[in-house]
């Protein structure tokens, strides 16, 4: 049984009523991956905006493994100390990571954030030396579109992320950087300039799917029809 763990911030946990890109990717792998697999993680809920807490189980499509390690307002800074125990208890084989926007927006600059990537990888490997990881760069967002200085920070971090992953990649614990979602547009692929709508969920899922297929021959090309 191959165990995938989605790790991320608000774009990964999703909010009440969302399908989430986690569900879109699971559905894709159900049709393209030939072996048994599941999604794992110490958390299962969506974020409830009315309560401002991760307490909702109101998925638009609840019939899938809902395990994850994601949280509204959490970044590399927050997940690095948690990932070791999460990997150890779930025996995750592959981490699907989408983090960075929160770090850059509120906590750390590009270089400090890249240092936290290193800590995250080290802690995951200490728990499971052969764990693999696919990491998504920070995606287009409304703040970067309106704040040139922040956009520059995002660009710098994404460059550092690629270099960090290349530096840390090793045969027994392979790392990949997923290509940014194809033609991702904050006006058509998000509902507020940051969080993905159904189109955006498909595009993020496709980015992970293509990395898994092209990098490790897991699954196949992403062919899910956009709504």
Description:
The longest helix has 21 residues, at 148-168. This protein starts with a strand and ends in an 11-residue tail after the last helix. Helix content is 44%, strand content 14%. The chain is globular, with a radius of gyration of 16 Å. The chain has a single domain (2-216), classed as Rossmann fold. Helix 2 (21-32) crosses helix 8. It is of the alpha/beta class.
What is the element layout, followed by pairings?
Layout: E1 2-8, H1 10-13, H2 21-32, E2 37-39, E3 46-48, E4 53-56, E5 69-70, H3 76-90, E6 94-98, H4 101-107, H5 110-127, E7 132-136, H6 142-146, H7 148-168, E8 175-177, H8 198-216
Parallel strand pairs: 1-2, 1-5, 1-6, 6-7, 7-8
Antiparallel strand pairs: 3-4
CATH architecture: 3-Layer(aba) Sandwich
**SSE run:** EHHEEEEHEHHEHHEH
pLDDT under 50 segments (min length 5)? Answer: none
Shape from CA axes?
globular
- What is the subunit organization of this protein? single chain
Structural class comes to: alpha/beta
What level of helicity do the residues show? 40-55%
What is the count of helical runs? 8
CATH structural fold name? Rossmann fold
Cα(first) to Cα(last) distance is: 30 Å
Superfamily at the CATH H level? SGNH hydrolase
Radius of gyration: 16 Å
User: What is the total tally of β strands?
Assistant: 8
CATH class reads: Alpha Beta
The amount of beta strand, in percent, is 5-15%
Mean pLDDT: 97
What summary fits the major beta sheet?
6 strands, parallel
Total individual domains: 1
Could you list some keywords that capture this structure?
227 residues; alpha/beta; two-stranded antiparallel sheet; 8 strands
